[in-house]
Design a protein that fits this description.
The protein is an alpha/beta fold. 30% of the residues lie in helices and 17% in strands.
Length: 768
């Protein structure tokens, strides 16, 4: 019986039967053959008083009769209902289907392979389910599987869709589901959320994508779940389920240490004093390295206490559990002896790849999979932990083993990205250059961006390993973890003097905050993590526009040119290029009063997630089917844009055509030279597909982040004197490399150019 068909009067009533509940955890339990017990096998002659069973008599089952409508551990029907929709249950079934099959040995899986992943798809559309406007009555997944959409994407040059999270998320309270607390990144099931469509529609989407030479990328969340069936069973102390989470049972004699849980909620965040006291008593490991999403009075620590919960054994328990993010996102324990958390995550991944047909998976929050008590007085080790690397190796290896690839969203230091990616995900989200190019646009100076890019190469992270993205569902992240944490005391040369990494991070954050929110009333700071904005609203703020209503048609060309500059920066370097529907249509932020209920608790990111219509399928819609209000679009829908050669989408297609024609996605970056003008950025590449010994052409990307035209000199020891400098867009020779390995270039405001260098001997051979 489906969840929404369940009626209280249909439920079983009677004494609780744990054996019966255990039986439902195996679909073929009735076919199992009884085996000799461990006790009978190992202790045939041992005196009864020494047998292990004799020491467990105090935990005998308490048989209780309960009302069939009761939603707690005393009702076997409620427990059964939870088990049948638990992710751990599904994971066990999926594992048995693949175990021992020859398909599990057909693919190499030990090492990440960024270029293999890029060859599958190198330009991604990052969707956000609740924000896409569809035809009336059409589901999100059906809209993504529309052949007209994929034909449009083909014209632009987009080869993959990252669907965003579409499986059921949020929680369960009693018999009812509760909504997501974090944009569906609090998953509670392997089932597709009916709000977004069906599994059949997801499979059809994969088939349509394949027909257009594209692919589909799904999500898994290895760091946490929502408070769904798995967590409710864990609270009850049922079987392996507590082993899924970082949760500690607090004995009743110490419940007085725990905060009271108000009526209507199921947990309460610990304050720092309680966190410290519980750590001193040995229950938890205490404070972590940082409190993500820190909000006074809401989230002051990474630990919360549950309300009292009765289990099937009749025992009432209270737990303290870890959550790196929100209270509704309990963290998964990757090193519990049951390995229940690992089983759950791997099962979710296999469902997406094997049952739905996706080609790749995004790993969300995968940098927080290991946590350990540190020396006295120091915060617990919770970032860059070796267990995170090991867990990521297992996840990514399993995905490669069944023929897919992974990319990670890991906002930690460059070394963490390098080390986790060395054995784990094939690609990593670009948290290195992203705040750098935003800072360059905000200030008109590329110094910090160049510093970030050179620091990345120095620490062993090449751009070909990264997913270079524009806006996604998250804030413009400016935590600058690399500079503020591990390298906080290191010195860097910036703005004419040597300063510490922590001071550098503070200056960059201050620049971004002032430029993007100082006078603009439409971008918002998001906790301590960054700024909620769209790419278009970011550009508007850097141009001094104070209100969105002040944007006129006269402002559009400059905003569009700056937006295309950011596209060129991300697309004209090795790696994946990703952009969203908010980028394609030039969406602005939603007025805060239209999402006041969503941002009331401090999550200002909802202003950047406005509803948008890619194909103009419902021009009169004021909201998406999920209820997100429609924001203002500067560029319009894609079909009309593609009819205008000067539109954002048409010019983007030209940028992507150069990218694909010359194979820069799999090239090697060999230099980031100093520049003659503060607003310039120069990137030098070998178009070698990663083969350092290949006879490969040299390519140079030159960008102007200033709102004024500029002229300057490109100089690099990596370019050959006497080479012709060719504008790849026109085929024209625009200069020659002199004996100092340099040449001149002119760029308009927000200009970008893709240059090829043709050595002198190649030119002579051509004319022979």
């Amino acid at each position: 019986m489906a969840h929404d068909e369940l009626r209280p009067e249909d439920l079983y009533t009677g004494p609780i039967d744990l054996a019966g509940i255990e039986a439902i955890e195996s679909e073929d339990a009735e076919h199992e053959i009884p085996e000799i017990s461990y006790d009978e096998q190992r202790y045939p002659a041992r005196p009864r008083r020494l047998r292990p069973r004799d020491h467990l008599r105090g935990s005998s089952v308490r048989r209780i009769r309960t009302d069939p409508r009761t939603a707690n551990g005393t009702n076997p029907s409620y427990v059964e209902w939870l088990v049948r929709q638990a992710m751990l249950k599904d994971a066990d079934v999926l594992a048995r289907q693949l175990s021992g099959q020859p398909t599990m040995w057909r693919n190499a899986y030990a090492r990440p392979d960024a270029r293999r992943a890029i060859a599958t798809s190198d330009v991604w559309f990052t969707a956000y389910p609740i924000s896409l406007i569809t035809r009336p009555g059409q589901s999100f997944l059906s809209a993504l599987g529309d052949d007209a959409l994929w034909s449009t994407f083909e014209r632009i040059g987009i080869t993959a869709i990252h669907t965003g999270p579409v499986k059921r998320a949020g929680g369960i309270a009693g018999w009812l589901e509760t909504p997501s607390v974090d944009g569906h990144f609090d998953r509670i099931s392997t089932q597709i959320d009916p709000t977004f469509g069906t599994e059949d529609e997801f499979r059809a989407l994969c088939d349509v994508a394949d027909g257009h030479g594209g692919s589909v990328i799904d999500d898994i969340v290895p760091g946490h779940t929502g408070k769904g069936a798995d967590f409710r069973l864990a609270e009850m102390g049922f079987k392996d389920y507590p082993g899924i989470y970082h949760m500690v049972e607090i004995p009743p004699e110490d419940w007085a240490l725990l905060p009271d849980v108000p009526e209507g909620v199921d947990s309460a965040n610990l304050d720092p004093a309680t966190e410290h006291e519980l750590a001193e008593r040995g229950y938890i490991i205490g404070a972590l390295q940082r409190v993500i999403f820190y909000t006074p009075g809401v989230k002051e620590t990474n630990w919360s206490a549950t309300a009292p919960v009765i289990g099937p054994d009749g025992i009432t328990r209270r737990w303290v559990y870890l959550h790196y993010f929100k209270q509704g996102q309990p963290s998964i324990n990757w090193l519990d002896p049951t390995f229940a958390g690992m089983r759950l995550v791997i099962g979710d991944a296999l469902h997406s790849l094997g049952e739905l047909g996706t080609s790749a998976l995004r790993l969300d929050a995968n940098g927080f999979l290991g946590v350990e008590k540190s020396a006295e007085g120091l915060p617990a080790w919770s970032e860059g932990h070796p267990l995170s690397h090991a867990a990521n190796h297992i996840i990514a290896g399993m995905v490669r083993k069944v023929g897919g690839f992974t990319f990670q969203e890991l906002n930690l230091t460059i070394e963490d990205i390098r080390d986790t990616g060395a054995v784990g995900a094939d690609l990593s989200y670009d948290f290195i250059g992203r705040p750098g190019y935003h800072h360059a646009l905000a200030t008109g100076q590329t110094e910090f961006l160049r510093l970030a890019l050179t620091e990345s190469i120095r620490h062993g992270v090449q751009p070909v390993q990264l997913v270079h993205g524009l806006q996604n569902h998250d804030e413009l992240t400016y935590e600058l973890v690399h500079w503020a944490t591990r390298h906080g005391d290191d010195l860097f040369h910036f703005r004419g003097r040597d300063i510490s990494g922590s001071q550098l991070a503070e200056e960059v954050r201050a620049d971004l905050t002032e430029s993007l929110t100082g006078t603009a009333d439409y971008n918002r700071v998001f906790t301590q993590n960054g700024i909620a904005c769209t790419t278009a609203s970011l550009i508007a703020a850097t141009r001094g526009i104070e209100r969105l209503d002040d944007i006129t048609d006269d402002d559009l060309p400059a905003i569009r040119d700056a937006h295309l500059l950011l596209c060129a920066y991300n697309a004209w370097q090795p790696g994946v290029f990703a952009l969203s529907g908010w980028d394609l249509t030039g969406m602005l932020t939603v007025p805060s009063e239209e999402v006041s209920d969503l941002i009331a608790a401090g999550d200002t990111r909802w202003i950047e997630r406005g509803a948008h219509d890619l194909l103009d399928v419902d021009p009169d819609a004021r909201r998406s089917a999920a209820g997100m209000p429609r924001a203002r679009s500067l560029y319009g829908a894609l079909p009309a844009q593609l009819d205008d050669p000067e539109s954002f989408a048409s010019r983007l297609a030209g940028i992507l055509d150069l990218r694909r024609t010359h194979g820069i996605a799999s090239a090697s970056q060999i230099d980031i030279p100093e520049v003659a003008h503060a607003g310039m950025l120069v990137l030098v590449h070998r178009l070698d597909d990663g083969d350092a010994h290949a006879d490969a052409a040299t390519q140079v990307t030159v960008l102007n982040f200033s709102h004024e035209p500029t002229e300057g000199t490109v100089r690099s020891e990596q370019i050959l004197p006497g080479s012709d400098v060719i504008d790849a867009a026109t085929g024209d020779v625009i200069g020659r490399v002199d004996d100092l390995c340099s040449f001149s270039v002119s760029l308009p405001a927000y200009g970008a150019t893709f240059l090829l260098l043709r050595p002198e001997e190649t030119d002579a051979a051509t004319h022979a």
